[in-house]
Structure formats: C-alpha cells, structure tokens
Amino acid sequence: MSTLPARLLDGYRQFRGGRYREEANRYADLAGGQAPKTMIVGCADSRVDPSTIFSAAPGELFVVRNVANLVPPCIAASASLHGTSAALEFAVTALGISDIVVMGHGGCGGVAASLAGAEDKPVGQFIAPWVSLLDEARDRVIAKAPDDRQTALEHEGVRQSLSNLMSFSFIEERVEDGRLSLHGAWFAIGSGELHWLNRDTGAFETVAA
Questions:
Q1: pLDDT of residue 82
Q2: For the chain, what is the mean pLDDT?
Q3: Does the pLDDT of residue 75 top 90, yes or no?
Q4: What is the distance between the alpha carbons of residues 160 and 39, in angstroms, rounded to a whole number?
Q5: CA angle, corner 43, sides to 204 and 12, nearest 5?
Q6: Which of 97, 161, 191, 198 could disulfide-pair with 102, CB 3.0 to 4.6 Å?
C-alpha cells in the first residue's frame, strides 16, 4: 500500500484543524448537493488555482482545468472523448450556472508547446494533438508578428475558447436568451494581477485591486 506523502498529510491535517473546522456547517450542507453559479475553465498549471485567485468558498465555483485552459469545439460524442465538454454540459444543463469564465495565464506551458509546434518541434505524444486546438489562434498571432508571441497567444487562446463555447447548442441558446454569460480572463502570475477581457474592444484590461 502506498504511503500518503508527508506534505499532503500535513496539509490535510491543517485543513481539518483549520478551514474545515471553521466551515463544517457549509461542508455538511454541500454533502447534499452543489449549486455553484460560476464555472471556470482554467489551466492545469499548479500556479494558477481559480479558488485561490477568487478567494472562493467551498461549493462556490465549478472548475475544470486542462492544459492551456482550452475549450474544444463541439463535435459528435462518438467522434472523441472530451472531459471538458462533459463538464460544460453538466454545469450548464444540470447545475444551471449563469457565468462561464475562460481564464488563461502568463508563462503557459501549453501555449509554449503550441508555438513550438509551429516550428516543427511538437511537444509530447498527447500534448501536441491537444494543443493543436490552438492552431488557428497561433497562426493569427504569428501573422501579426507581435513582440511577445507567448502573451499574445495566451490572450488569443482565451478568445478562441470563448468562440468554441458558442458551438455548443446548449450554451448558445442560453447566451442568446440571457440566462448565461461568457467571460475571458488572464492572470499574471508574477504580479498577481487579473486582466479581464473587454468584449466590446477585444482588449484585456487590468482589474483594479
């Protein structure tokens, strides 16, 4: 039998003696079900935890994380398996969330892998085909020749995923009738600043702290 790593054991004990004790009633209520209003599609990167960034309480956010915070376009379920698509369907149709936020971040390894692919340097057996979802966004960025291709593609990838969200009929219907809103965000790890996508201008704007 494997042994629980010491760091995880220490963390669990701190949780039980701290946050759990303080919010025991909330956890007891959550045992009966969840009712979050916001879904975050974030990156799997260990430095970018949505619950930490938004100081979210247990049960407040429905979070799905993957490499480069990507939303695939809607395709027939029989054509492929998409954990992200399944999470979207559950959050929207079963939980009835009102907001979806696609949140990218600085220094994203998945975005770097996409850029490497453009130079015929594919990264990984599984990473390369996954980040190929960024191909169209990457080509747009490269064509514009920005000084910082990495950040430009991190931003453009968020925009691409927001566009892909609208390919799901259950999302499109709710957006059009006002039951659901879509948002884009980008987090600067070093400064801790959140940048929010202005859908009117297409620019990411720093959120006042």
A1: 84
A2: 95
A3: no
A4: 17
A5: 125
A6: 161
